[in-house]
């Protein structure tokens, strides 16, 4: 890593490059885009998707070949890695670019955020405590605040807020993070108190703050407060009510069982869709109309979505999930067949939506056919698929098959973020105990070998659905919070 840094530094010097600017590489905004070609660093790194495989050898090899290292390309790669949640690789790239002796506060803020995502909050705290005090700027504390907020640690977040208040800097973003945190935890009193505090301090509301409040009211189906805030947003010349705000309001109406108002708000949202987020907007509308039980509108949005071209896996995933939500498996199968005929990369979330639906309805033969077909095509079946199948067998009281499927899930589990179904796993253990302690011990050894501790398997999995649902708004706000203090924009 030291050699790669020195090579990069030498290249920058030869190019009359301002290294002081480079050390704060990720704190600048740029519109630069890189068109990947076979001979670009972009093209080499982006396909390397396995987080367990380091991208550092790719970077080092690039330098050894005597190829140029362009700031704009590194920044673009970094932004795309973060956007695609490839945080391990983003952290590796951050460390490769900037040697520890050349860290700027902006670099520390970026790295703190990434360490929290890759290695957990404790490692992020350790990193923060070992950073020299001269680098612990307002922005670095803001990154730590965001880490605590992500983990929903109210007391720690409030303590960091008190420290940040001593810097005398603009606290608007910090307040937004706390609004977001209180909203997620349903702490309405604290949220309203913070709103009053912002008003007393003359802090103007911007789009993220408005959207967070709108979410809070919508989640509680507080229609009066929600409509009052919408009116305030419409009257604010600095804040445009966009499609996402309308979807959030539709969510509130839906929660209050005001179907017509929800539908009207979705129509309004559709008219406001603009630019590069069009695909995401259509995906959300598909899910929302499915939640309203309106198949005609789901079909209409789907055709609009397809007309824009460049249909992605996410588009097919949302359409199939919406049809399954509407209990139209036959139509979902047709869309799946269309996806299979056009897809360029096999995304197991998509067949999983159908497999999960089959197992819930007891259509286990269809699920088996799906999986066998994938195996015959040479595809590696992920733990999630086997887990769905095991749960289907368990519910159908086919315990031998449930155990076999769960074993496959366990073998495929390591290195994934999937949470195995605790109920099914426990049922398999109970079944094997009845067969004899030896069989149970073999199964438990298999769990231990794969690093699975039964007590740590979350019960939340039981409510997991492959359908993402309708609540995308806070995710968008979270991304904005992440990028603001850690300077990825």
TrEMBL record:
* SUPFAM superfamilies attached to this UniProt entry: TPR-like (SSF48452)
Which GO molecular function annotations are given, in alphabetical order?
mRNA binding
Keyword terms, alphabetized: Repeat
Q: Name one Pfam family in it.
A: PPR_3
Task: Read off the InterPro entries from this record.
Answer: PPR_rpt (IPR002885), TPR-like_helical_dom_sf (IPR011990)
Instruction: List the record's Gene Ontology CC terms alphabetically.
Output: mitochondrion
The entry's family comment says: Belongs to the PPR family. P subfamily.
Q: What is this protein called?
A: Pentatricopeptide repeat-containing protein At2g20710, mitochondrial
Query: Which species expresses this protein natively?
Result: Coffea arabica
Which gene holds the coding sequence for this protein? Answer: LOC113743500
